[in-house]
Design the sequence.
């Protein structure tokens, strides 16, 4: 990825993770570290041992991962008690060397993530028939956003984690609310200079398939433009062949372009 690798969408993603980890309760055991001798970054959360929260991104595609480097990575996760983790590799021709080395070292392909970016010269319009009202969440409501995310993804620890974003000016949290003013969907925006990142979006079951996440995208893009940003990045799980991939479709519908796909490799510590 000549123009985007570690300079655009991946850089803002890492920045977002740094900001998010800084807001986590100490008991969660969050760790983010740059790996010596490489441009890669290791992410780990003791309280959430799934590979989604324990992974390495930013490995250079034009160089193989050595057995010694993988041993070093494994040692970090093993000492933290994390049994499995992901290594990421971009699915591009110039990353074939990295892919080959990961397979040779015994790592297994386990899905992929699509990366998207968008300028803010124009903005998507909110659907006229959208049935909910939209607003910015107050800082004392961030736990409500966390509860929506917890209910959406069965991750209860997101409640105190989202509460930790309160008072951090780089974060904005938004709601879609029903007629009684009760939040039924949420989405989060990180502002990092001229760049922005979208994440932590979820919708309660009662409001699904009614355009909430499309509205959340439009609302956050407008907020990013108002904050002076020029580029917004987001990622979504890449659909398997034959699957619908509703998140990716919503993102593309909002005017993003897919700039690449990042393969997940599952490794044992």
Sequence:
């Amino acid at each position: 990825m000549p123009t985007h690798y570690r300079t655009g969408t991946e850089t803002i993603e890492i920045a977002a993770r740094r900001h998010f980890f800084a807001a986590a309760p100490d008991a969660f055991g969050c760790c983010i570290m740059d790996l010596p001798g490489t441009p890669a970054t290791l992410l780990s959360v003791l309280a959430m041992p799934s590979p989604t929260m324990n992974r390495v991104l930013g490995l250079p595609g034009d160089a193989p991962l050595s057995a010694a480097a993988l041993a070093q990575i494994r040692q970090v996760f093993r000492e933290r008690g994390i049994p499995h983790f992901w290594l990421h590799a971009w699915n591009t021709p110039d990353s074939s060397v990295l892919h080959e080395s990961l397979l040779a070292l015994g790592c297994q392909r386990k899905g992929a993530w699509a990366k998207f970016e968008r300028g803010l010269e124009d903005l998507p319009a909110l659907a006229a028939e959208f049935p909910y009202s939209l607003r910015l969440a107050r800082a004392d409501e961030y736990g409500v956003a966390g509860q929506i995310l917890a209910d959406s993804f069965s991750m209860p620890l997101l409640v105190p984690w989202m509460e930790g974003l309160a008072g951090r000016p780089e974060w904005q949290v938004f709601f879609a609310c029903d007629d009684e003013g009760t939040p039924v969907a949420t989405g989060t925006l990180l502002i990092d200079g001229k760049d922005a990142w979208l994440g932590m979006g979820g919708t309660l079951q009662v409001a699904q398939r009614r355009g909430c996440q499309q509205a959340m995208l439009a609302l956050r893009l407008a907020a990013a433009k108002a904050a002076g940003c020029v580029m917004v990045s987001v990622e979504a799980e890449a659909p398997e062949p034959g699957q619908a991939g509703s998140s990716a479709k919503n993102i593309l519908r909002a005017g993003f372009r897919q700039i690449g796909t990042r393969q997940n490799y599952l490794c044992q510590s």
Summary: The chain is about 30% helix and 30% strand.
